[in-house]
Design brief:
The protein is α+β, with helices and mostly antiparallel strands and about 170 residues long. The protein has 3 helices and 9 strands. The protein is about 20% helix and about 30% strand. The radius of gyration is 16 Å and the shape is globular.
Length: about 170
C-alpha cells in the first residue's frame, strides 16, 4: 500500500477536558473503494501489550495504531524530494531508494513501536532514533495531556515538534 503517501489530516492535541492527549485522524483519501476493505484489527502484541490498527487484509505495516494505556500514532508522507520536477519520475526515484536501504519502511518501524514501546516516551524515542528507508511524518499522542509530538523524519535524522500540532 502506498496510500499514506497521498496524506491525511492528522492532529495531536489535549482532550477537551484537558486530562489526556488525543490523536485525531481523517482518512481523506481519494482512492475509490479503499475504505470498503478497511478493517480494525486487534493485535495481542509482544511484551508491551495489545494494540489496534486500521488496516487492510494482507498489509503488514502500520499506518495508524492505538495502543490502550500507552499511545496512539499515525504516519504521513512529507513533501516529496524533487529531482526532476516531473511528479511520476520523482515518485519513482524516491521509491527506488527503498530497495537500496538496509532500514525498515516507516510503516514497519511504526509496527515495531506498537509491538515494543511500553509508553509515549519510549515510542517517541524509537520513532526519533531508529533509521528508516524513506522520509515520514509520525504523529504521536500519549495518555497524558502533555504527551504529544509530530516527528519529522528523514532516513537518519529527526526533528520533533512537541505539544499540540496539526
Amino acid at each position: 500500500s502506498v496510500n499514506y503517501e497521498w496524506a491525511c489530516t492528522c492532529r495531536a492535541a489535549p482532550s477537551p477536558d484537558g486530562r489526556s492527549a488525543r490523536l485525531i485522524r481523517v482518512l481523506d483519501w481519494k482512492a475509490p473503494g479503499l475504505g470498503a476493505n478497511l478493517v480494525c484489527t486487534k493485535v495481542s502484541g509482544a511484551d508491551a501489550g495489545p494494540f489496534a490498527l486500521l488496516t487492510w487484509p494482507g498489509y503488514t505495516g502500520v499506518l495508524q495504531v492505538m495502543a490502550p494505556g500507552r499511545f496512539s500514532a499515525a504516519i504521513n508522507q512529507p513533501p516529496m524530494r524533487k529531482a526532476t520536477g516531473l511528479f511520476y519520475v520523482d515518485w519513482a526515484a524516491n521509491r527506488r531508494r527503498v530497495w537500496d536501504m538496509p532500514h525498515p519502511t516507516p510503516a514497519h518501524l511504526l509496527r515495531k513501536v506498537a509491538e515494543e514501546a511500553a509508553d509515549f516516551t519510549e515510542a517517541r524515542r524509537m520513532l526519533i532514533e531508529q533509521p528508516i528507508s524513506t522520509p515520514a511524518i509520525f504523529t504521536l499522542a500519549g495518555t497524558q495531556a502533555t504527551e504529544m509530538a509530530v516527528i519529522e523524519r528523514t532516513e537518519l535524522e529527526a526533528r520533533s515538534r512537541d505539544g499540540a500540532q496539526v
